Predict the 3D structure of the following.
Amino acid sequence: MSKQVNLTIDNQAVTAAEGALIVDAAKKVGINIPVFCYHPKLEPAGMCRMCLVEIGRPVIDRATGAPVMEGGKPKLQFGPKLETSCTTPVSEGMVVITNSEKVKAARKDVVEFLLTSHPLDCPVCDKGGECPLQNLTLAHGPATSRFLFNEKNHNAKHVPLGDLIYLDRERCIQCGRCVRFQEKIAGDPVIGFYNRGRQMEIVTFSEPGFDSYFSGNTTDICPVGALTSADFRFGARPWEMKATASICTHCAVGCNLAFNVRREVGGKNGSPSKGGIVIKRALPRQNEAVNELWICDKGRFAYQYSESPTRLATPLVRKDGELTPASWDVALEYAAEGLLGESKPGQAKDLLVIGSGRLANEDLFTLRKLAEGAGGQAALYSQSGGGDLLAQVGAAPGTNLASLGKGSVILVVASDLHEEAPIWFLRVKQAAERGATLIVAAGRPTRLDRYAKYVIRYAYGEEAQIVAALGDSPRRAELVEAAKPAAAAKPAAAAKLVEAAKPAAAAKTVEAAKPAAAARLVEAAEAFGKAENALVFFGSDGLGQSGAQSVAQACAQLLAATRHVGRPNNGLIPVWGRANEQGGWELGLKAANLQTALQASTTAYIVAADPYGDDPSLPAPSFLVVQELFLTETARRADVVFPAQAFTERDGSFTSGERRVQRYYPATPALADCRPDYAISAELGQHLGLKLEGRSAAAIFAQIATEIPAYKGLTYRRLAETTNATAIGAAKDPRDAEERRCADLYYSGAGYENTQGLGVQLPLQTLSPALSKPAAAPAAQLSKTGLLAVPVTQLYDLGQTVLPSALLRQRIGEAWVGVNPADAAEAGIEAGAAPAAIVQVVLPGKPEWRAAARIDERTPRGVLLIPRSMGLPLNAPLPGASIRPVVRRDSQEAASQQPA
Amino acid sequence: MMMLKDTYSAEIEATLAKYPPENKRAAVMPLLHLAQRENGYVTKSALYEIADLCGVAVTEVASIMGFYTLYHDQPGGKYRLQVCTDLPCALRGANEFLEQLCANVGVKVGETTADGMITIEAVTCLAGCNKAPMFQVQTGEGLEYYENQTVESAVALINDLVKR
């Protein structure tokens, strides 16, 4: 524990950690010093002057170093001027006065200054009602202004900073929270100040404007209505809306959300809700162990799919070759008959049940029960693998990325966290900035590299070997030996690994780089072995199911060998593509090879997954039941389609990649005839002659808690527990108890205190002895013919849950393929063309696909990067690929061909 | 498009060489001067080029340029006459001076004369409060200070500048 300092604030004795700021120390005893520019997650700036206080410090006798006494008390020296409490750290014996006439007068003047050119347009401002400037003006400001009304500066009021965020220049008070957030927290300095004085404004020069995955957070922390999101702008007044706690479904981080809803006619995006409750915006809900106060723009702007007008509203049954609406009874009956076929009730033997990580724990558990009961097989729809290991080596309970710093190591393998899980990117980056050693092992450069102490490059296909080399010293020795210039000519396997570090460089450079790369690997391995705490993230960059399985295996063995298992802040974190893939693995579903699994089944029941959309070549079962939100490619092929409720319409729980079980709550009423997934599955089960719990998510969770050891003892009530100990001041005005928003000035109105559950991390099983033994890493099996096409993830893709968001759609961009300049030259494709050259991508056994070539060194030699869910189904690395030019889309050339 | 690299590769290399490679951002300001020498103002493409050369975000380069009144993001006259209108100067009549000067020359603050020679701008603190009204002239080669000015002396100077 750090050294404690005693001071007095407004006659109250306060003890605070050395280095704490006065404004935070005051909060501990319930004194809210007003602030605009200060934010506890940002470095203090002292820009707004709102937090001025009187500060007295004990006079120290220079000769003795003891405080000078006066009348039995230490003599105090007050500064001649007021000081900013947001930049001044506490010191021993300090006396702070926050409520004197002098301080009150200063606050009044500061507000008067801030409002000199403020338009005071609260009645039409989106922030009105949850605006710190409005609140603090009422609390501390003057009723009138001495400035001349006609001298107000008038500025542009609708400046789009890109297509997601709008700036109202008149409302901005130049606090710089947004600029500091982008620079320090997001590491994306794409907005900045321009000009100075009264002309100062926020600008962006990035292409596209405000090009950051975290841009929406600036609208939350903006203490005025200057930054508003295109999604919520002019959408509703804060007091009209209710908040519902939820969990983001877009990746495995499990960010805590709050949905703001209100009743209205129609709805945005042509939502089918007529006079019903609609979602107006998604906001972060504070969870210091998960997402702190932030969410990424995908989580904020891609919830619309739940309100899309293209949602399925009634059950469909295939009649005369066409899917036609039917009643639930008819559809369930028909589905059960089809799945049972000739077999007896409860014995649909060749049934394959597929569920995805978009489903809640309760749904997946019910699916497994159904498959088991019917004698079929249940599979998790996932392109990744290795989830079965996490019950032993997953992140141990108590793990919190925020507590990692000096002495900790974070290894990120095969993941571009910025694209796959932006909030983890942000938190890993921050841990590295606090002093944690970051090792990034990837096949290509990623944005995390710049924060890493060790960057290790491997050739795609050799991920597991590199991880094994980190934990296995003989292997490393071999590697170093191989890297010595004299031995470099030997075709040792290890030499190849090192060679991979510099694929694009000339052969000579490779020779020179080898010892450096090997030394880096050895140093990284030593750092990992010696670390007090070590966390490993593994993602899906360039991996398929089996690749991910071996990487996970290698990571698990590395953690076991270095004893980084079973303690808080240690373990393996999978960067799954969906919110609840971890729940699937925990509840006994496994990722299956669908090609063989579907081949072996005569009937299938596919829930919340679109395998035929992702890979049209999969074999078709003779009878197919699909449960979905949309009429997907898979649903189009079905014999029966059940319309499910979106996660915003029901309750349930997810298990995050960190194995945190978190609850979400219904935000809006269900659409039409839709039912929750677990209820549909349970009813279908009943029609198959099985007895399944389907009355409520809570009842199923109770069953999970009794049957699944990891969930033992968990209840919905425990998941809903919160503590007061948040990083942001806990003291609050009791009058705000009802209205949780604005309870704390730091929330700035937008963003929510967590009152509905922090979730619970699952305990680990004991380590199986098999994992403790270092196993030989599997050799790379990838053939060297042609180019190697590898799947990579980009955050905004053409996925079913992203497309309905009109805002993000513009950011998805066109389909692209990453090509190394040398490979492009060999294929006769010109680099540097603008707009990018279109190429034909030819993969063995796949439909031909056209995409814009991204030709640069970010793609290693001999590799094609294929983004997932962008039109070309590729679930695993595939050798033998090639590219050829199509047309050069050069606008100048096109123009020159036109008659003059 | 003309790149700075094409014209000034030696100067750019010399500038970058002055700073450690991990602190290339230190070269942003000298490179902005270089870019401004080329066109009399910093073009948008120069911003992108400097960002690229120094390995910083283009918005950061723009912020730096925007902060200083000696950098310009718009084309102006051959000579930029920058009048300080900060508080102490204003107390000594800088605002009236600026107003009358503009009226005499026939432009508004921030505008350029029709012959493209003179741009009159209002700027903050030039560190000559006690000798206000005062201004500086940015000539492209350097800065010239003129203190204790009257509208007549300023107009005379402008006539000289035009003939220079």
